[in-house]
Amino acid sequence: MSYLSATEAVRLMTARELSPVELLEAVIARAGEVENVINAFTEELYDSAMAQARIAETAYLRRTARPLEGIPVAVKEEQPIVGLTHEEGSLLLKGTIAEVTHPVVTRIVRAGGIVHARTTTPEFSCAAFTHSKLWGVTRNPWNPAFSPGGSSGGSGASLAAGTSLLATGSDIGGSIRIPASFCGVVGYKPPFGRVPALPPFNLDQYCHDGPMARTVADCALLQNVIAGPHPWDVVSLRPKLELPPLTGDVRGMRIALSLTLGDYLVEPDILDNTRRAAEALRSAGAIVEEVTLPWTRELIMRAADAHFAGIFGAGIDDDELLCDYTRAFRAIRPELSFHQGLELEGELYRPLGELLERYDALLCPTSAVPAFPAEHDGGPLEVAGESGPYMLGVMTVPFNIASRCPVISVPSGRASNGIPTGVQVVGRTYDDETVFQVAQALEGALAPLGHPL
């Protein structure tokens, strides 16, 4: 029962074939079986969740259920909830209590969602793996020797392990899409401004709060709840975009396929599964053509380093309590100034923008490797036989630079080590619906992964 999709759970509860209390009990029981292995939760809110489940039960009986009524939702700890801890994986913030609730959380609760747990992140969400001095190591349910990715690693691990039906994430360099890929779930990076956030990072164009789920339809369900303008966020978009029911009809769509996004090195299993995904779209009636992009890994990381140093790293004071990877992150000394980085970002977007004038969407791998080791320290990583910065093991950063492009990551198969792999569907600026329709087609055409553990 803990692996029900949210949309199916809503259907069953509406038909009075399932109780929200029974569903929550199943999710809590599943957490009791696996949480000691995966360590995805920073906090369990089971007592308050059960009280809400009983209220949801009454709502279904009275036919007053809201869109997420009775659905257990795991919330990334980075997104604060008033009165609860807001520690961001750092010993520097241990015991800090939030004085405000993130707009995403408020909307989930108002829609009837039950926040039963909060999920782990790396310190200050500044890594693509999930471990910290405060919370320990979060592990991948498919193989605990590997990481679930980061920074929304706890959310990805929880979904994969069956300890939540929906989860929230945030994405500054791939932090939704990387754990979606590593954990075999679905993660959506909305275009900048689609989902409201809190200052100061709501003003950072690289930053996006978004939904994570086990199915594309579930991801759309949560996205429709959390999207829309908010009085606290000056960049939140009006009017609210409501995704329509998904058909997965891609007949006649033109899809560009890039296996390397220029010159990324990509492991063979990833390449094979990405080609399989492309063929699935062809079988569904899309026109899929392989293309080239004039990007290089060096240019992408130069632009990203200028941005991260100017916006993210500058906000973290040095302290011996920090994790080593956090200290390394804040110590980035970019080759370019912030202004020069913006100029480079414009140059990098131009060929993508021109490409998307000719194609409805771009398909590419989410990650160049199946997963990182669970306790990877942020140092060099070998990818396809070449050692380099570990962030070259993922292929998400270009689309934080192209921040107005919607991007969804969906499972593409499994690698030889048993870890899932993922592909990204990248859309034209603010064209959310197309990427969801392509993702729905992929999900319908590719074999399901099954469940771990």
Automatic annotation (TrEMBL):
Q: Where is the Amidase domain?
A: 22-299, 347-435
Under the heading SUPFAM superfamilies, the entry gives:
Amidase signature (AS) enzymes
Name the Enzyme Commission number(s) assigned to this protein. 6.3.5.6, 6.3.5.7
Coiled coil regions, renumbered to chain? none
Which terms does the record give in the GO molecular function aspect? asparaginyl-tRNA synthase (glutamine-hydrolyzing) activity; glutaminyl-tRNA synthase (glutamine-hydrolyzing) activity; transferase activity
Top-level lineage group = Bacteria
> Which Gene3D superfamilies did the record assign?
Amidase signature (AS) domain (3.90.1300.10)
Matches recorded under Pfam families: Amidase (PF01425)
Against InterPro entries, the record matches this protein to: Amidase, Amidase_CS, Amidase_dom, AS_sf
Task: Tell me the protein family, please.
Answer: Belongs to the amidase family.
Q: Know the name of this protein? A: Aspartyl-tRNA(Asn)/glutamyl-tRNA(Gln) amidotransferase subunit A
Q: Which organism is it from?
A: Nonomuraea soli
Q: What is the lineage of its organism?
A: Bacteria, Bacillati, Actinomycetota, Actinomycetes, Streptosporangiales
